[in-house]
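In response to reviewer comment 3 from the previous cycle, which asked for concrete evidence that the modeling workflow produces usable outputs, we include below a single protein chain processed end to end. The sequence was submitted unchanged, and the resulting structure tokens are shown without manual editing.
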Amino acid sequence: MGDPVGSLHQAYKALSPDGVVMVIEPMAGRKTEENFNPVGRVYSGASVLCCTPNAIASGPYALGTVASDDALAEVAGKAGFSSFTRVTETPFNRVFQGKK
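The workflow returned the following structure tokens.
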């Protein structure tokens, strides 16, 4: 996504004062070493070949390969959210909640 801050800001504006947004991202470890598994390798490869080049080509902001929780929280903060936390995960996805 070329403008994750702008996209999340639009979601922020659409929420009621006590609203939350759910963000789903591909599974990734908090450290690079945690991605040394079959799922992490596929997602890292796809991110390098598809996601990051698309973000660079289509917008002002590229999170880079397999965005970390911290990078996503920073984007959510810039979009206006007061909190952004990982609330659950599966072997394939991380699920985050952003609160106004």
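The beta strands are 20-26, 83-89, 93-99. We consider this sufficient to address the reviewer's concern, and the full set will be provided in the supplementary archive.
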